[in-house]
Amino acid sequence: MSNSTLIQHSIQGTHFGYSAADLDYLAEEGTTEYTLATIVVDESSSVSSFKKEMEAAIKEAVKACKQSPRSDYLLLRVVAFNSSPREIHGFKPLIDCKESDYDGCLNPSGMTRLFATSLEAIDATRAYGQQLYDNDFDTNAILFVITDGIDNESGSINASSVKDKLQEAMRAEVLESILTILVGVGVGTYTDVDQYLDTFKDEAKLSQYVPLEEADEKTLAQLGDFISRSISSQSQALGTGGPSKTLTF
Fold first, then answer.
1. Superfamily of domain 6-237
2. Contact 5/22 with Cβ under 8 angstroms?
């Protein structure tokens, strides 16, 4: 049974921070490669009506990932955001992630800080990837940003800022590859939100945009399965020199 300790880190030149498994502990485990998976979930006031379904999607993703033959090679971070980001937990071995940890993990309120939180998540992934690289771990990454709305709280940070941060992470060459998947929840009746998120994907040069027409129990359960399949596929691609193919929802 794993019992890793999460160490708090700051990111040089920014006000961002993150927590992650202690590198000495990872070295003792004997694993030489990891996939860094991040799930960023909107908890602004507009998700109140389906917060339990969103929590269930996270639980389903964790449950399914544990069945993957690559489960020992996964480090998961989960972040919620509204007017500011909030780390539910930092990068830790999947074995330490219990489904019950996500009961009541979302607290809907406030605005939608979409761009700035996406940028922070990329930066944290790059920073921890650097530490792993410096300690001779092979690493790739996958990042999900799940939202139902339009950014209204990021100030001067925009889609172009996210693109620049993503390109910076790739130029650092500490991650073999990084997949970035934007998920729009309940956008079937809000074509303006759907178009907005599709444009965000294009302008930020994200890997994929997945629009979910509904925000019901069935659709969000399928989202959990899609997340787990995507994480497992990206983990299996580690060592190939590139990312996995994006999957169909």
1. von Willebrand factor, type A domain (3.40.50.410)
2. yes
